[in-house]
Automatic annotation (TrEMBL), chains A, B:
<feature type="domain" description="Nudix hydrolase">
    <location>
        <begin position="40"/>
        <end position="170"/>
    </location>
</feature>
<protein>
    <recommendedName>
        <fullName>GDP-mannose pyrophosphatase</fullName>
    </recommendedName>
</protein>
<dbReference type="GO" id="GO:0005829">
    <property type="term" value="C:cytosol"/>
</dbReference>
<dbReference type="InterPro" id="IPR000086">
    <property type="entry name" value="NUDIX_hydrolase_dom"/>
</dbReference>
<dbReference type="GO" id="GO:0016787">
    <property type="term" value="F:hydrolase activity"/>
</dbReference>
<dbReference type="Pfam" id="PF00293">
    <property type="entry name" value="NUDIX"/>
</dbReference>
<keyword id="KW-0378">Hydrolase</keyword>
<dbReference type="GO" id="GO:0006753">
    <property type="term" value="P:nucleoside phosphate metabolic process"/>
</dbReference>
<dbReference type="InterPro" id="IPR015797">
    <property type="entry name" value="NUDIX_hydrolase-like_dom_sf"/>
</dbReference>
<dbReference type="GO" id="GO:0019693">
    <property type="term" value="P:ribose phosphate metabolic process"/>
</dbReference>
<comment type="similarity">
    <text>Belongs to the Nudix hydrolase family. NudK subfamily.</text>
</comment>
Length: 179, 179
């Protein structure tokens, strides 16, 4: 296997203290040369594929300031410090939607933008979801619940209405399951 | 539909001048309150699903400094200023692997990490790929080509060896195609 490793020579802090810590590092390349790497360090997150008894997936529409628009996504959220990812998935589903789950099963985890960021998202499949009467979103979270069947999801992926990476991974996984 | 929009009140520059520009913005929330948003602005990228005549997908293994390891990914790269994304896909395939394509077809585009970043990746499907004799990677790029069949890809997704978001989207798309 080719020698690929890059090692840190120096690091300059651009931002620290929130859920994102950002550094500009100087690295040693495999050929001995130097290069610069901006690194966004993220605390990690979970997302949850929750499907109703009548085979509709639970999505949320929310404003994404960085993109300048509202996106349709699977329920997701950042891990609290020390939080178990599975617990986070249960919590986010209950916080962002009128649904909650008995338990969740791990599906996979992945890097969202490994070219500059270490964010890992843990994807879970909710088991036995049920509608709750009350919705208690975070105080600074404004989310709208949207239910979609398989055909609608396929159309929304094709026409670009669903264009969030983690959501595409979760929904392609759902569509690949044997019905 | 719920009122979801957040609008900019103020913006502080953390980094400018490279392919990542980073800001810490203050925003007005839909309920009139204020909040803070770190925004990473990215120039955009393409990735390419390239499959050989004997149904093997062309992947690259490369060091991802942010993650502290080497990842297995579809060939991908940042858009040059003003570059057509399709042209970028053809270029990256030829630069990173011993293969090149006659043309590429658009599959979909998506946000990688819309919670804090505006990066859009354009996914293309390469058409009529062929092996070239010479490999000419960028001077600061160290990449290794890996070919995988469908069963190997399914296993590598399941066991976590493939754990890059854009790559999962491209490969799930490939696996969902009728053979």
């Amino acid at each position: 296997m080719m020698q690929l490793e890059e090692t840190q020579i120096a690091s300059r802090t651009l931002l620290e203290g929130g859920f994102l810590n950002i550094y500009q590092d100087t690295v040693r390349l495999p050929n001995g040369g130097e290069s610069s790497r901006v690194v966004v360090r993220h605390s990690g997150a979970t997302c949850v594929l929750a499907v109703t008894d009548d085979d509709q997936v639970v999505l949320v529409r929310q404003w994404r300031y960085a993109t300048g628009g509202a996106l349709l996504e699977v329920p997701a959220g950042k891990l609290d410090v020390g939080e178990d990812p599975a617990q986070c998935a249960l919590r986010e589903l209950a916080e962002e939607t009128p649904y909650c789950a008995e338990q969740v099963e791990f599906v996979m985890k992945f890097y969202t933008a490994p070219g500059f960021c270490d964010e890992v998202i843990h994807l879970y499949r909710a088991v036995n979801i049920r509608a709750e009467s009350t919705l208690s979103p975070d105080q600074d979270e404004f989310v709208e619940t949207v239910l979609m069947g398989r055909a609608e999801v396929q159309a929304a992926i094709k026409n670009g209405e669903i264009c969030d990476g983690k959501t595409l991974i979760a929904l392609q996984y759902w569509l690949s399951e044997k019905v």
